[in-house]
Design a protein that fits this description.
Mean pLDDT: 87
Number of domains: 1
Radius of gyration: 23 Å
CATH superfamily: MetI-like
CATH architecture: Orthogonal Bundle
Strand content: under 5%
Helix content: over 70%
Low-confidence stretches: 300-306
CATH topology: MetI-like fold
Amino acid sequence: MALPNGAYRGLLATVAAVFVGLVLWFVISLIVQAKPAFSTLGFSWIVQKTWDPTHGKFGLLPFILGTIETTAIALVLAVPIGLGTALALAYLVPHRLRASLGTAVELLAAVPSVVYGLWGLIVLAPLCREYLEPFLTSVFGWTGLFNGPDQGVGLVLAGIILFVMVLPTMVAISRDVLAVVPNDQVEGAMALGATRWQVLRKVVVPGARTGLLGGLTLATGRALGETVAVALVIGNSPYIAHSIKSPAATLPSLIVNNFGEATGTELSALFGAGLVLLVIGVGVNAMARALVRSTARGGAASVAVA
């Protein structure tokens, strides 16, 4: 039996209110738990460099930088490879192979993060130490970003693991978005003599840019918040990394490594770290939404001019 319109609207309003209430509860709880740290230390501790609970120092700057750096490395790899894979699955791979290849990529998303971490620590870390890091140093050493000994674990390996973990999200969303670009636009461009590469670059990708930005936002969110896999391969150094090869730490790895034994101000500071991570995530999402709106307006203006 169908619900009356009033009851249906009431049900939807209740569900929405419950969801909003849960979000507010979560945020308020986080703020309440972090308040003692801010009351005791002020706000300057967020950008201080030293994390030493024994001496009452809880600087978060090394972990904020580590979070941003590992996410950046992952996205630098994931954006071109993910977009290229999605274009191949949507337009280039034969139809009989698309489903199986798409399923294989999506299965990567089902692998537990701890498995990725163990794989990175046992398999990839020695390879990074023996081959990848020396190669990067020989090619890009002039930048100063690859100074120091080859250690295997560190920002490079953490970024690679994050890349593998966010790639299925990028590919799945990008493929679905690219697939819904109107076929008449694609066929029209090809009828006018455009090559397949020109069609993909000038028609398909611009037509799907809003959805592609949405996929990038989701991938960024996962990279920012990933914990276990990163904690296993990043080296967990509480100092600012002056080289991409150096061990470092992220806000999530800081929390997971110290939460079990933390008390008092240290425990509150860890909640503060979680609050900072939340603010970073919300900020990234807000910037992505603004970029999506700007892109949508630009696309609409282009259509109007045409």
